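User: Hey, quick favor. My workstation is busy. Could you predict this chain's structure for me?
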Amino acid sequence: MAALIKRVRRTILLCRDLFQPFQQREIVLSRVGNGLCNYRFLAGRANQTTNGEQILSALHVEVLSKTPNAFNEKRNISVEHYLSDIGVSLEKVNKQLDISRLSLDRVKGKVGILQGIGLNKEVGSVISARPSILVIKDEVIYSRVKAMRDVGIKPDALMYVVRKSPGILTARTEETLIEKVKFLQGLAVKPKLGREEVLHLLTKCPDIIASCSIASLHDKINFMEKVLRFNHHQLRNILLKQPRVLTFSKEGMKAKYRYCYEEMNASCNSIARCPRLFQCSLKRIKERHLFLRHVGRLKEDMIVDDYGLGVILSPNEKIFAEKIALSSLEEFNDFRHSLSSV
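Assistant: No problem, here it is.
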């Protein structure tokens, strides 16, 4: 018994050193007494004790079971607690996975991989966004991380792209990334995109890595060249300033381009120099343009250049209304409501 107590103390002290006090701790001990059996414990405050386990109670360790089956039933609850403790939305995970079938050890392993990338506070949000990360084999995730490192994505950038687009770890990144880099470097833009510029583009819009196929990229580039008629210099500027255009719908881009070109008298070159207009809704563009006309800040025949587009599309409603339109936020809101009621 004395030997057992020493072993228990050593194990508990070791676990105290390895884990934060508030975290769930799984402890596996073996005991030789009246026959050989395994004791499995989950750290926590114990309310009840049994004769041979007073020492564990004194150390605030709760005995969950002496049999693997009973332990595993409670282990599933600990998976939920563990995920909840690190900020995972159980509601989102439950929509895609059966949490009761997850192994706590494997879940901790996935969290360890994400922390190894540099994610700490963000682990919960990353798993919530892509719960399937929890069931992908470790070696597959490692291969995808390695693929990004191999093309030259730096550690800080790697952490950013996974946080912004967790789908990178669930897509076949290891099979497609090199081809995407080659495709972007080979684009007919002037001057050609260098490798560092391509990496900047991918880091700025990691969805290109996660969800764009080579075919979809080729289709979008062809659309901007043939339909929107951007030349090779303009196309290069657009990609570096707003790489997300490669993920936008062609219909939406065409409608915004047409409105700016036909209604706002903005030239193709001005639009190319202010590509962030493509991330704004057409409704927002119209509301602001028409309000400037309404208050007399824009005349019907005035030409809007790239600077003007950028100013009009400033993100803050109050600044736009007061500094750009020289009006008030209240008047701007009233005008918007009048448009929506028409």
